Amino acid sequence: MTRRSKLISCASYLPEKILTNNDLAKIVDTSDEWIAQRTGIKSRHMAAEGEKTSDMATKAALRALEKAGLKGTDIDAIFLATTTPDQVFPATAVTVQDKIGMGDKGFAFDLQAVCSGFVFALATADNFIKAGQVKRALVIGAEHFTSLLDWNDRTTCVLFGDGAGAVILEADDSGKGTKEDRGILSTHLHSEGAHRDLLYVNGGPSSTKSGGHVVMNGREVFRHAVKRMSEVVEETLKENNIDSSEIKYLVPHQANSRIIESTAQKLNLSSEKVVLTVDHHGNTSAASIPLALAEAVEDGRIAEGDLILMEALGGGLTWGAALVRM
Ligand code: UT7
After folding, report:
1. What is the domain range of residue 152?
2. Mean pLDDT throughout 278-297?
3. What is the domain count for the chain?
4. Is residue 257 within 8 Å of 288, Cβ to Cβ?
5. Are strands 136-144 and 77-81 parallel, antiparallel or unpaired?
6. Which end of the chain is more exposed for a tag (fewer CB within 10 A), N or C?
7. Segments of 14-159 assigned E as strands
8. Is 152 a catalytic residue?
9. Domain check: are 254 and 112 in the same one?
10. Of 175, 197, 213, which residue is a domain's last?
11. Phi then psi for 74, rounded to 5 degrees?
12. Single residue among 123, 143, 175 that ends a domain in this structure
């Protein structure tokens, strides 16, 4: 008997407003051609005035609960990955806990690993479940990333978008300890703080005593992303003793279609086996993987029993992967 965290539901929420590359070309010196060629992005969603990270996270969470036929009180814990909380504190997760009607049941907290946040949250929830401390968990990636952007900086403001995705994990003791088990088969987390200056926000309570904007050395982050993502993918395949041909879908963090293509090539995966949403979501940081997963589940590409590989790299630098049998 092996305890696994089975993924029983996933859902997402995207704000109504869509910002196209041409809209951005009216704000900064850029073009649809440059953005599309260098990143694969054509458009992204943007939160409405007053719409907060917790609002988006709550909508995704309620949809995931509805799909699973569950109520808020059926959840023991919320692990919410975000870089853009409503406030410095309390955690955005406790607002979601209240709004989905969990009352005082269980606990809720935020995690911060920027674009790798969802993989880090998934791994954390998986470990709580395996330890027997949590039976059912909501794992959410939610971002209001457009609020962190300097709208005069064309090197960053064209890249990011807003949205939220949520999955529900449930303890399942019917596993046999093999790769055929349903649920999370393994997670792999890494960070290297020496590279924290490649991608960061230039503000915060203990430094500038204020907020700040995203600053990125895009070329260097790109180089690390290609290297680290293929390393962590290989580590995942090796630990599970599987061949990349067994993977039904790669569900990568959506930062740049060129980074995603390079990882897929290294895995020998054709483009049909890669879930790509960066073209219409942009980079939604911690929300990008659950948003992509929900899209592929909803349109029927990913179904029960499929083996999927998630991977991400973000500021920190942080990077990680998760292998999941749906
Ligand atoms: O999610 C977290 C992880 N993040 C990532 O993985 C992002 C990784 N990095 C990237 O995706 C790419 O590096 C970018 C898309 C950010 C940039 O693409 P690039 O091919 O690395 O371009 P670059 O930064 O080397 O810039 C090339 C040129 C520069 O002009 P010069 O110096 O060659 O004259 C830039 O000033 O493109 C210019 N440029 C732009 N031009 C039009 C930069 N941004 C823009 C823009 N529109 N928006």
Report:
1. 2-175
2. 98
3. 2
4. no
5. parallel
6. N
7. 17-20, 43-46, 77-81, 107-111, 136-144
8. no
9. no
10. 175
11. -85, -5
12. 175
Active site residue 188: no
Instruction: Copy the structure tokens of residue 9.
Output: 């539901």
Q: What is the pLDDT of residues 79-120, one digit of tens each?
A: 999 999 999 999 999 999 999 999 999 999 999 999 999 999
Of the listed 10, 115, 157, 256, which one is catalytic?
115
Q: Mind giving me the DSSP string for 229-274?
A: HHHHHHHHHHHHT--GGG-SEEEE--S-HHHHHHHHHHTT--GGGB
Pair (65, 162) in one structural domain: yes
CB atoms inside a 10 Å sphere around CB 275: 22
Residue of 155, 259, 319 to mutate, ligand 1, most atoms within 8 A of C-beta: 155
Residues 187 and 159 in one domain: no
Please tell me the pTM assigned to this model. Answer: 0.97
pLDDT at residue 64 is higher than 90? yes
Residue 115 falls in the annotated catalytic set: yes
Q: Give ∠ CA 14-81-192 in degrees, rounded to 5.
A: 125
Q: Which two tokens stand for residue 220?
A: 């260097």
State which ligand 1 atom lies nearest to the alpha carbon of 156: 16
Q: Which residue has the tokens 């003793």?
A: 241
- Contact assessment for residue 94 and residue 126, using Cβ atoms and an 8 Å cutoff: no
Residues 140 and 228 in one domain: no
| 120 CA from centroid of ligand 1 (Å) | 27
Residue nearest ligand 1's atom 1 by CA? 255
Helix and strand counts by DSSP (H, E) for the chain: 10, 13
